[in-house]
Specification:
globular, three-stranded antiparallel sheet, two-stranded antiparallel sheet, 372 residues, Glycosyltransferase, 52% helix
Length: 372
């Protein structure tokens, strides 16, 4: 490609940062994450100074996130954060990175790790890249990933796709964030709703308004019946994204998803600690406290209030949850005390925790702008 065409594309992407992106459902303002004093940073100087404000903090979190190694679902979650932030060059770069690692139709495959649902998590960003760059590699990649979803036999008799990689037949709460938003972004609304309802059927507990983590469909029992906090966060945030993408012709289905979102938010908030954190298993105080569920719920609440389907009273707990997350960002941009790597059995760091800090802050800023 010629340098003239490259400059033209960069110019388009910069301009696109200041318009509303319908697919992502956000106001993508590309320059809203610069340094607080609008002065250019000298290379290698950022971390030598104390954090000077929220924009500086967001920039540091972004840089720390870029340096983290990522599996398929992490690539997708971070890419979605950049898309919603209006960091369009980065989002498209992440989409291309997912295609570079595409194997047998599945995005972002590393070391044989390629569960269908996790691989699909970057799908909305790939579709955005296809639409806004015109590069056929993105449409081809999205079509190949969708073909895997459409033709796989790795699913329940009623067609609910397993979250675990073949041959394991597990349904996890994580999957609601990973697969249905890609289906909705592709216009496959009925299939997105079918998968959400399927995951809910296996994992949701009506009395508690919470999702268990892992169902084993061979043994017909839970591998982990616990109400894992982050798993419930995945469910709330994934449904939130699909609500935004459903057209008006799906009004009844949208109302149903709104009720699902309210349910899981209410179920979690019963267990919010005074310090703005949740326990890893929300109803088990002997499990470690962590802050990523707080970020995930903040994101879901800010989006719901901005869209008008959540009462503004839901903003009350977001104040303590958002503060808890911001208090845990260090000088290098790492969000401490999320359910962390590598086995998510301790309070530590994780790319998804970084991504949801960025998603939370973007949703908060978008809500503030909508109220002006």
């Amino acid at each position: 490609m010629s340098s003239k065409k490259l400059d033209s594309r960069r110019s388009f992407l910069k301009k696109a940062g200041g318009v509303t992106i319908g697919m992502a459902g956000i106001s993508a303002v590309g320059n809203n994450l610069g340094s607080s004093n609008n002065q250019p940073q000298k290379s290698g100087q950022l971390f030598l100074k104390e954090i000077s404000g929220i924009k500086d903090k967001i920039e540091r979190v972004k840089i720390a996130t870029l340096g983290m190694q990522r599996y398929d679902w992490e690539q997708g979650t971070v890419a979605q954060a950049f898309l919603e932030m209006g960091e369009l060059d980065l989002a498209i770069s992440f989409a291309r990175g997912a295609i570079v690692r595409q194997e047998k139709g599945r995005f972002s495959v590393l070391k044989g790790n390629g569960p269908i649902t996790d691989c699909a998590s970057v799908g909305e960003v790939v579709l955005f890249a296809a639409e806004h760059t015109g590069d056929p590699i993105f449409r081809k990649g999205a079509d190949e990933m969708f073909e895997v979803i459409k033709t796989t036999k790795h699913k329940t008799p009623e067609g609910i796709i397993y979250h675990t990689q073949e041959p394991n037949k597990g349904i996890w709460s994580d999957a609601t964030y990973m697969l249905p938003p890609f289906l909705a972004a592709a216009g496959e609304y009925k299939e997105a709703l079918k998968q959400i309802d399927g995951f809910r059927k296996y994992l949701y507990h009506e009395n508690d308004k919470l999702y268990s983590h892992m169902w084993d469909d061979v043994k017909k029992q839970f591998n982990r019946e616990d109400f894992w906090g982050v798993g419930n966060g995945w469910s709330a945030a994934g449904i939130t994204r699909v609500i935004k993408m459903l057209p008006d012709s799906f009004l009844a289905e949208k109302k149903m998803l709104i009720s699902y979102t309210k349910d899981v938010i209410d179920g979690c908030l019963k267990y919010l600690r005074d310090d703005g954190l949740f326990h890893d298993v929300v109803n088990k105080p002997d499990t470690f406290p962590e802050v990523n569920l707080s970020q995930m719920l903040c994101y879901s609440i800010y989006r719901g209030v901005a869209a008008g389907y959540l009462n503004p009273s839901y903003l009350n707990p977001t104040e303590i949850m958002r503060k808890a997350a911001n208090d845990r960002v260090d000088k290098l941009g790492y969000v401490h005390d999320v359910c962390g790597l590598p086995h998510f059995n301790r309070s530590y760091f994780a790319p998804e925790g970084q991504a949801f800090y960025l998603l939370m802050e973007t949703a908060a800023a978008d809500l503030a702008k909508s109220r002006k």
